[in-house]
Every structure is written in structure tokens, then in C-alpha cells.
């Protein structure tokens, strides 16, 4: 197996094992621990050793991992990579049970900018966090992944909606509750059915559950990720946006342990990007800043560190779609398998500047990988990333980049089988080969 093929298989395994943000963080923790990184607790005093790797989680769904450089961060800055762990999905409501026309359903809330139509007629399962009281009466929590399909959202037959292929709309309240089965309780209230099921599943997994108290659960498609295309040119999977970037950044960070690094390298993967990042564990919260301040030691050192640092915000980009090419600017339509994309927006929806764009292109040159540019059409709105939020909050230089993909925010997305690898190579060059001089020259 080639290095690139091994990388892609690892990405596929990561996608399969990460049906929720909490699962993605757990998978990253396992890889960090295997690589010799040490878990830190925010409530404790840290004793850090240069050259060693560490990680911290917050809320179980956001994670920061870093390898401490041999030199002080105030002298070298921090080489940061950012991504997000969440993806648009359907989340289960707290009192979710519905009984309609003899069918047992669960009410769901749309999380993020979901492309809704692809959710119909898929084999769905449930995953996420469950909080429960154990037999000793203490609160505890566990991750749940049911794995097997337990629900479906059936489409309405075209015979009953002859306009379905012209102007079909989806009412999130009425049309999205998944069906789990036929109810045979003869009119009895279905309340607490889900909690009883969750308790049973957790007990079968070895947890001592007396009562399920609450949960954070999302439905997901059970179809596994796959390499597709005549020559396996594509990766097709749920949650490519943005678990592809989480995995790519993680691999770049772990690769840095192959040689002693003067500068500190860091990966931050936040939850809640798809809903604006405004939370204690989102990019607009204090998580990253608090870690950086602890690494710097004092305010003077912190400001010197920020001035010497660079953040590469990694979030997938819109590849040009051959059936909808008119949706792109003629000169800025990124192609699949043509390299990572530098994302630019004059209205600061992306944080890229000409300086940081030039720096990232130099990392691609170091890694001998191609790169592209994306600018949204001037008559269309532009999405955003954690990049502008981190740049505003920290005052750090930022470049927004990402692997090109199709079907963003669908239940199943498609990216190129070369592009994640290309991005990982550029990130490794950023960490291991860049001497930091360019950014200092730009200040003088």
C-alpha cells in the first residue's frame, strides 16, 4: 500500500468511526495517546516538557492538541491548524417521541445548514452522548453509537405529489421526524420510550445505568465511506465537511514527532462551527485563547507569540460542479484532485490576506503539491469558517484553505482521493520545514 493509499484508508476509518463530534474527538484522542501525547486537565496546573505532545478537550466535542517546541513560543510563535468537529445533521429533541398514524417517530431539530432532500430514504442510526444516573445514584456519561439502521424518513410518492421534481419543499417540523417502527401500544403515551431504549443499549455495552437523564444525539446515515470512480478518484462519505480537515490536521501534527521542532505546533478542532461558533467550546469561545495564554506565560510574551504565529484554518471548499459550472466565478472554480484551495473574500468572510495566501502557497511549493484559489461569484453570498472568528479574537494572522468537495452539507459528500493527501503534505511543510522568516520579514 502506498503512503497516500494508507492515508486515505485511515481517513475512511476515521469517518466511519466518527458519527458525532464526541466520537470524532475520542478517535483523535486515541491516535494522540498511541503517538505518546499526554492528556491535560484545564483545572490543574500544567508542567510541560519541550518536545512532548499534549491534548486538552472541552465539552467532549472540542479538542486542542499541541507539541511543545524546543524554543519559547514568544520567540518562534505557534504554528496553528484549525478545523471543526461538527457537521449539519438532524438532532433528537429532548421530548422526542411522536405517535402518528400508528407509527412511532422521533422529533428532530435541524442542526446547521442541512441539505434536506438527501436525508429521505436513507438507512439511519443514532449516535452521540448520553448522560445517566448509575446504580450508585451518581451522574455519569457515555458515548453511544447504535450502528445498525433503526430509522428511515420515507419520501412521499410522486403519485401523491406530481410537482415533486419541480418545486418540492421540506417542512422541518412536519416532514423530517424519522420513523422507528409501528406502535402497538393501543394509544398509550410513548413518552420515555427513547430513554428506555438508550438505557438498554448502554447496559448491553457494559454501563451500569439506572436512569437516562439527558442526551445529545444525532441521526446519521449508516452507509460506510467508500472510494469511488473508475480509478477510485473520489472519496464519498458523510461528514467530509469537516472531519476531513480534522484528520488531515491531526496527521500533520503527528508527523511532526519525526524530528525535533524548534517551534510549537498546534491543532484546534472546535464544535459548533456550523451554527456560528458562539459557545464555550466553539471558535468564538475562550478555549484556544486560554490554552495559548498558558503556553506563553504572561501578557508580554503572549503578544509577542501572537505576532509571530500563523493559523491555517482548514475547511472544505466548493469544487466546481460540471452540471452547475455557472455557479462559480469563471476564474476561481477549484477542481477535484487539483490540490488544496486558498479561499479569498474581500468582505472578510474568509480571513485570507495576500500575505497569508503567499505563505500558504509557499508551503505547497515546499511540499511539491498543487494549489488553487476560490472566490465566490460577486452576485452570490459567501459562507464562512472559524478563520475570521479566530483572527478577530486573537489578532493572529490567518489563511483560510480547504480540500475541494461536492455536495457540501448533504448527508453524503464527495471529495478527491488526492486532495486530502495534498493538504496534509502542505500542512506538514508548514510545521516541519518553514523557518518562520517570511512572516517576520513581512513585519519589518
UniProtKB/TrEMBL annotation:
Known cofactor(s): Zn(2+)
InterPro entries cross-referenced by the UniProt entry: Peptidase_M18, Peptidase_M18_dom2
Name of the protein in question: M18 family aminopeptidase
Protein's organism: Oceanisphaera pacifica
Single annotated GO MF: aminopeptidase activity
Keyword Iron-sulfur tagged: no
SUPFAM superfamilies the record matches: Aminopeptidase/glucanase lid domain, Zn-dependent exopeptidases
Family of this protein: Belongs to the peptidase M18 family.
EC number(s) given by UniProt: 3.4.11.-
Protein keywords: Aminopeptidase, Hydrolase, Metal-binding, Metalloprotease, Protease, Zinc
